[in-house]
Amino acid sequence: MVALGGDGFMLETLHRFLDDGLPIFGMNYGTVGFLMNRYAEAGLPARIDAAQTVRLHPLLMIARTGRRVRRAHAINEVSLLRQTRQAAKIGIRIDGKTRLPELICDGAMVATPAGSTAYNLSAHGPILPLGSDVLALTPISAFRPRRWRGAILPHGAEVIFDIREMDKRPVSAVADFTEVRDVSEVTVREDRSITINLLFDLAHNR
C-alpha cells in the first residue's frame, strides 16, 4: 500500500489497517513527514521493491474508570492529561515497582519511536530512532519533581499510572484518537501481537 500525505494521514492509515499487516510505503505529500519517504512518482515500483522494512508494535492502553475498563491502541503515544485547572498527581510504576510515588504535573506520556517526534518532542522528550526497541516516558510540564525529565525504557516495559486524588484532580487518558476521561489507573505496554510494517527508501534518514 502507498500512502500519500503527511504523518497525520499515515497515522490514520496505520490505525485503519492495524490488523492487516500490510506493508505500507508512505510518500510525503503533506506538512510533516517523519514517517514518510520523499514524494516522487518516477520509479516507484522499483523503490518499493528495494525498500527496507521497519517493524513496529503499537502500544496497548488499558484505562480503568471505576468498574469500567477501556482498551485502545496507540501508534504515537498514550498521554495522560489533567482535566481541570489543578495539576494532576500521578504515581508511576514500572514492571511492578514504584519508580515515582507522586508526579505533580499537567500530564505524562509513553511514546513510541514512531511518535517521538510528535507530542513527545513538543514536551521536550527524546527523539527515538525507528526500530530502536525503546519507549520514552515523558512528563508534561512537571511541577514536582521539577527537574525530572523522564526516562527511556526498554520496549518490553509495562508502565502503570496511578491517579492520586482523582475526584479533586481528574485525569483523562488518550491513545492517539481514543480518549477516556476520569481514569483511576492506566496501564501501558507494547502489544507484540500486532506488527506494523513500514517501508522506507534505503537512503531515508530515520
Give a description of the structure.
- With 206 residues, the chain is mainly beta.
- It has two domains: 2-57 and 194-200, Probable inorganic polyphosphate/atp-NAD kinase, domain 1 (Rossmann fold); 59-190, Sandwich (Tumour Suppressor Smad4), CATH 2.60.200.30.
- 10% of the residues lie in helices and 44% in strands.
- It contains three helices and 16 strands.
- It has helices at 7-16, 44-50, 119-122, and strands at 2-5, 24-28, 52-56, 59-65, 68-74, 77-82, 88-94, 97-105, 107-111, 134-140, 151-154, 159-164, 171-175, 178-180, 185-190, 196-200.
- A six-stranded antiparallel beta sheet has the order 5-4-15-12-7-8, with no helix packed on it. A six-stranded antiparallel beta sheet has the order 11-10-9-6-13-14, with no helix packed on it.
- It is elongated.
- The two termini are 20 Å apart.
Query: What is the architecture of the largest domain at the second tier of CATH?
Result: Sandwich
- The H-level CATH homologous superfamily of the largest domain, spelled out, is Probable inorganic polyphosphate/atp-NAD kinase, domain 2
Low-confidence stretches: none
Overall spatial form: elongated
Evaluate the radius of gyration: 18 Å
Count of DSSP H/I helices: 3
Which fold does the CATH topology of the largest domain refer to? Tumour Suppressor Smad4
The biggest sheet amounts to: 6 strands, antiparallel
Strand content: 35-45%
> How many separate domains?
2
Order of strands, widest sheet: 5-4-15-12-7-8
Features:
2 domains, 206 residues, six-stranded antiparallel β-sheet, Rossmann fold, mainly beta, Tumour Suppressor Smad4, 3 helices
